[in-house]
UniProtKB/TrEMBL annotation:
The lineage of its organism: Eukaryota, Viridiplantae, Streptophyta, Embryophyta, Tracheophyta. One of its GO terms (molecular function) is ceramide 1-phosphate binding. Keywords: Lipid transport, Transport. Belongs to the GLTP family. GO terms for cellular component: cytosol; membrane. This is Glycolipid transfer protein domain-containing protein. Residues 61-197 form the Glycolipid transfer protein domain.
Amino acid sequence: MTGHSHPRRVYTYPRHVRVLLNFFSEQMAATNETVLTKIAEAFNELADDVNSPSTPPRLSLIKFCSACRLLSPLIGCMGIACRFADIEFSAKVDELTTASESIDTIEALIDLDIAHNTGKNSWSNSRNLIRANRTVDLLRIMFEQILAQRGNFLTGPGLTAYEQVFAPYHSMAMKTAVRAVALTIPTKARVLRKLNENDMFMFDYRTNFQLIHLLVRFSEASASVQIQKFVIASSAVIQYIKDLFHSTEYGDELLGMI
């Protein structure tokens, strides 16, 4: 008996699904442009300044503050677990922004505190800078972990970042509280949906779970590219600021304070 070859069936989504996919992928890309892309671009600019061939490089304080300010909506998407961190981070950035009215660069900010012997004060610009830089580092490590794993849960990456950045400065009671509240961090899909919230998305997704899954995949792919850029760029900025403190008279002591 002669066998018959059958043409391989190529599955295509129904037309209404393809139309919706095209529409929402465009809207998601546009929304990501206002959040993740702007964050990546802002830190790329800072990294370029840090890696500038000029000797020595100069890091603009107001540019650093502006880049940090872009992170606030991202932290807010992490739910109640990061609500306090967002408030404190925003307060430190606000104080640094005020300082930028009279201080041009981060190098000058540190030099002034060292010269006036005010760096160790709890309200000093140097202490505010260190705390803001730690929050950026927290997000960098968290996103690094997210990119390295395929899961949908962010509690693990969030706790890993916390243990490396803030836990060494916290009491046992504080560590226990943070570990408990970390369980409320939303899933990766929910965070991406929050980043992509738009009035045009107001229709009932529940009738097409396949469509939801595809939209989340579109969003994840777009977000991952920008997150990777942020991770690389912020690493250079974070380390540069740490090195500035290490090079000062009592910078190591400042970095060891909460």
